[in-house]
Specification:
The chain has 835 residues and is an alpha+beta fold. Among the domains are: 1-147, no CATH class; 208-351, no CATH class; 354-509, no CATH class. It contains 19 helices and 30 strands. β23 (411-416) and β24 (419-420) form a beta hairpin. The chain is globular and about 110 Å long.
């Protein structure tokens, strides 16, 4: 059994304080409740992974980052924060989280957060929030347990039967909803319409995924290795208990194939729901993926439905080998027992003869009968108001049968909607569900008789079918059978396809461009995400991805010159372009392309200046944040530009915060802009210090302290840590002429952090359990020691350094791997101060 206890660290954004949710976290992740994620993974691995025993829930603390939200093109609230940024900040506040091969969850209040896992290795981090369903959370925890994505063919997330393909599942919906149990500690909502935990549950990880990922499972009696033509009885995955056979493994021509039985029960309850893939015997192969140079992974290759009206009893993989030859294997179901949920299956060779049906459309004539404007779906990007024309047209469907497997002179039989086709050129009357699309919203389908005319060509290999426009739009099912005598008797192959005759339809000229823009928008978003994710591993690739993403967003936004934005009207893609420039700037900075990074930040400022002119109430906060970000990208050669950007940001945020006098904040009620203003003052102080405006820099830091003093009076638990850090930062901005003010700030910070850390006696720390404030206190003592030294209080400076050593001594006892180097450095600092 793999012991992998889930550890959950709760955080709220610095500008959105929230109360504790310890009971809800324990219920969701570690309990034995029917909706527990720990129970899900224990049950789905048949007890081979235990994520519950030894799991921990840490109390909620502020993350140290503001939420930095925006509304995307769908009107949904999003955050500019990146997953790596959130995880790195959580680690910085609790460095001990890095240790251990177990799932590490950073649970954020409020959503949206940059939810998802950082990697698919055991011990990875995942960022989650209540905007994620049970299915989504189970998928991300799977990554932290070492599970990679699953595939369907060459499509990532393409397996309808595996949690590691959430949430697209190969364009199916195998999940099911569950009601919130009475008495549950999980909140009904955090803020309106954000609770999606109960919306989706399941499915299980595919048995093929368990076989490929978990060595203990692969070596267990639940895996049966078989050869060709060797029947085996399998239990349904969702009904099995440990030890029962749930997967058959067969190696054919060097390729590993697997079969498993999936039925709509327990965690798989959603399989037979509308949109679900359906119960069946499922075929996977351990196959190469489109990822260059990466290991093989399980790939869904099809299923045999348990209830097939066409008598389907086999499935053949769609995989084609590098040689161009189809894999020579076929999975056959011989028997299925509904009462016991068992299936008898076997692997055999591919069928030698087959027929494939291809349908092609032609439109000989059309006439426009009406025009209008309406809303049309542009999936997956919502809908658009577009002009349309109502068109009546003649249509011709050409159905061609392509044969393989050595046919010589087969006979063809054609049927349309189960009606035998009349002789060539004769009308065939069929029953179809018709829709007369005379408005943007089609009328409900109605069964009626319609007439088609068919012409057979190529000795029956091809069928031409024409319609009557007045019959409207309707679906037809075309079936072809080809038969031929052989030494084994008559061999027959069958193929069918469903198509649509569009006698009346809406022609929407702008729809193609809207869809193209949608795809470009998705590609741009993907490139910007790649830029953020690649910064830690391949910074040049991150810059290239960010550059390409920004280029696409500029095309969508209609921008070619950031100095000429006043003449342009902003559209929905401008805010996304602002986000892309932000990510690109950070990648350029990491790549030491500092001048380009500053240019990207300035372009972002220009963008939000134009947006703020158009809609001040919506975009002035974003403009202020863009100026703060420009201010943070400081280069000596740019002085005084960073300082000016910071001053502009502070001016805007002071207006939004309603602050005119930092000495008179007691009568003011803080709003969300106070946190942003504190961040702007922090960045401005550094820019002023770089520009040798040291007195102004100290003033900015003191204003920041005043803000946090007022915020801490309003909400001590949320803001006392921030006040302490602001005092430490003021202490670090030391000028001889300010003595003893830096000392006083440092002493105040140490006093606050000692209370938060629970420390009263540095010589008696053995019985105390460190919390995240211990590291902050160590930093405060370090800065205080230097302030004491500047003020010639050498004994006090030495004492502060000694107390810092005591903290790291206790830390090293509990976590030597993390803290031993820090203790060595602290001892060296103490020695230097005693010399």
């Amino acid at each position: 059994m793999l012991q992998a206890p889930i550890v959950v660290v709760q955080h709220h954004w610095a500008d959105q304080p929230r109360g504790p949710h310890d009971a809800a976290m324990r219920e969701i992740f570690l309990s034995d409740a029917g909706h527990s994620l720990g129970r899900y993974w224990r049950e789905c691995t048949f007890g081979m992974i235990d994520p519950q025993t030894g799991g921990q829930i840490f109390p909620i603390t502020p993350l140290g980052l503001t939420h930095d939200t925006f509304f995307d093109k769908h009107g949904d609230l999003q955050s500019h924060r990146t997953r790596d940024e959130v995880v790195a900040t959580a680690i910085a506040q609790a460095p001990g989280l890095v240790a251990g091969y177990h799932p590490k969850i950073v649970f954020m209040f409020d959503n949206p957060s940059p939810a998802g896992a950082t990697d698919h290795v055991l011990g990875a981090f995942a960022v989650l929030d209540f905007g994620g369903s049970h299915t989504f959370m189970a998928h991300e925890i799977g990554h932290t347990l070492g599970f990679d994505h699953s595939f369907g063919g060459e499509v990532e997330y393409g397996d309808p039967y595996c949690i590691m393909s959430a949430r697209t599942f190969g364009n199916t919906s195998p999940t099911h909803a569950r009601p919130r149990p009475a008495g549950s500690a999980v909140p009904e909502t955090v803020f309106p319409q954000d609770m999606r935990f109960w919306d989706e549950f399941g499915p299980m990880p595919a048995a093929a995924t368990l076989f490929h990922t978990l060595p203990e499972f692969a070596a267990s009696s639940m895996v049966i290795r078989v050869g060709l033509e060797q029947p085996i009885v399998l239990d349904a995955l969702s009904e099995a208990t440990p030890g029962q056979p749930v997967i058959a493994v067969c190696e054919v021509d060097g390729i590993v194939w697997t079969a498993e039985l999936r039925v709509a029960t327990n965690w798989d309850a959603g399989l037979d729901r509308p949109g679900g893939p359906g119960s069946g015997v499922v075929l996977h192969g351990i196959l190469p993926t489109p990822r260059p140079g990466q290991p093989k992974l399980p790939s869904y290759q099809g299923r045999i439905p348990l209830y097939s009206p066409k008598g389907i009893i086999d499935v053949q993989p769609g995989y084609t080998q590098p040689s161009g030859v189809a894999a020579n294997v076929r999975l056959v179901i011989e028997d299925y027992q509904l009462t016991t949920h068992t299936a008898k299956i076997r692997f055999t060779r591919r069928q030698p003869r087959a027929v494939r049906l291809q349908l092609d459309h032609q439109t000989p004539g059309r006439v426009v009968t009406a025009t209008g404007r309406a809303s049309f779906p542009v999936l997956p990007c919502g809908s658009r108001e577009l002009d349309y024309q109502r068109v009546e047209q003649n249509e011709l469907v050409v159905a061609t049968a392509y044969l393989s497997g050595g046919y010589i002179d087969p006979d063809f039989t054609w049927r349309i909607n189960d009606v035998m086709v009349q002789p060539s050129g004769q009308p065939t009357v069929i029953t179809a569900s018709t829709v007369i699309e005379d408005t943007p919203q089609p009328a409900p389908p109605a069964d009626r008789q319609v007439t088609v005319v068919t012409v057979q060509e190529g000795e029956g290999r091809r069928l031409r079918i024409s319609n009557t426009p007045g019959d409207g739009t309707y679906e037809i099912r075309i079936e072809v059978s080809c038969s031929e005598p052989s030494s084994a008797g008559v061999t027959t192959a069958h193929a069918d396809a469903t198509d649509r005759f569009t006698g009346v339809h809406l022609d929407v000229p702008g729809l193609a461009q809207a869809i193209a823009d949608c795809r470009k928008r998705l590609r741009a978003r993907s490139l910007i995400d790649d830029s953020a994710n690649l910064r830690a591993t391949d910074v040049r690739a991150a810059v290239q991805a960010g550059t390409d993403g920004v280029r696409l967003y500029m095309e969508l936004a209609g921008i070619s010159d950031f100095t000429a934005l006043a003449t342009l009207s902003p559209n929905e893609d401008w805010p996304a372009l602002g986000g892309g420039l932000y990510m690109l700037a950070y990648a350029q900075w990491d790549a030491t392309d500092r001048a380009d990074a500053v240019t990207s930040m300035r372009h972002r400022v220009s963008l939000y200046e134009r947006l703020a002119n158009t809609d001040p109430s919506a975009y002035r906060p974003s403009l202020a944040q863009a100026l703060v970000d420009e201010c943070s990208f400081r280069r000596i050669e740019d002085i005084p530009a960073p300082q000016r950007a910071g001053e502009r940001a502070v001016t805007i945020l002071q207006e939004l915060a309603g602050i005119t006098d930092y000495d008179d904040l007691d009568d003011l009620t803080p709003n969300p802009h106070w946190n942003s203003l504190a961040g702007a003052l922090y960045m401005l102080a550094y820019a002023q210090w770089d520009a040798t405006d040291r007195a102004d820099a100290v003033t900015s830091m003191r204003h920041r302290v005043s803000l946090y003093e007022r915020l801490a009076n309003t909400d001590p638990s949320a803001y006392r840590p921030s006040l302490a850090q602001a005092l430490v930062d003021e202490c670090s901005f030391r000028r001889i002429e300010d003595i003893p003010a830096p000392q006083q700030a440092g002493e105040r910070a140490v006093t606050i952090l000692q209370e938060l850390a629970g420390i009263t006696d540095y010589d008696n720390l053995d019985d105390l359990t460190p919390n995240p404030h211990w590291d902050s206190l160590a930093g405060a003592l370090y800065m205080l020691a230097y302030a004491h030294s500047d003020a010639a209080s050498h004994a006090a400076a030495g004492l502060a350094m000694h107390q810092r050593v005591k903290i790291y001594e206790r830390r090293t006892e509990l976590d030597p791997g993390t803290y031993a180097p820090l203790l060595t450095a602290a001892q060296a600092d103490e020695k230097a101060f005693s010399a």
